[in-house]
Amino acid sequence: xxxQFRNEVTAMxxxxxxxxxxxxxxxxxxxxxxxxxxxxLVFRFWNTASDFYKGLMLFGCLLFPVIxxxxxxxxxxxxxxxxxxxxxxxxxxxGLHVKTQDAASDIPWSRIRNVVREAHMIVVxxxxxxxxxxxxxxxxxxxxxxxxxxxxxxxxxx
Length: 158
Prior knowledge:
Elements: E1 3-6, H1 11-23, H2 26-45, H3 51-82, E2 88-92, E3 95-99, E4 104-108, E5 114-117, E6 121-125, E7 131-135, H4 136-139, H5 143-154
Antiparallel strand pairs: 1-2, 2-3, 3-4, 5-6, 6-7
Helix pairs in contact: 1-3, 2-3
């Protein structure tokens, strides 16, 4: 069986992935606790605080719900812009074949380290850090079928 996809990953796809992973981790819980604590401080001390401390409290309230997502989106735009144009991904019996306008590489199934199904995408990792995002736009209705195929070939269900 073969699956071929043209890379259509956008900055918003990267942003969704990072935000989802952040808020499903310990760091995300700390972010939420910090933000809630900042709101409590604002309500408790707003009337007695100087302008400097009011500014710090406002910054603390906006840090994780507003500023952090904006910074992550900026980094996501940079990451999306760095992707080679015209990248095609082919999954077959031999593994993953990545083809761009300038180069091509083959990754055998034995080098696939992990496959993660997220809400709007599947990520196929070739090592601990690097992976290939396949969004729902790319996968269409074949998402579950493709996910099961990659899991069976990469032998990750140990």
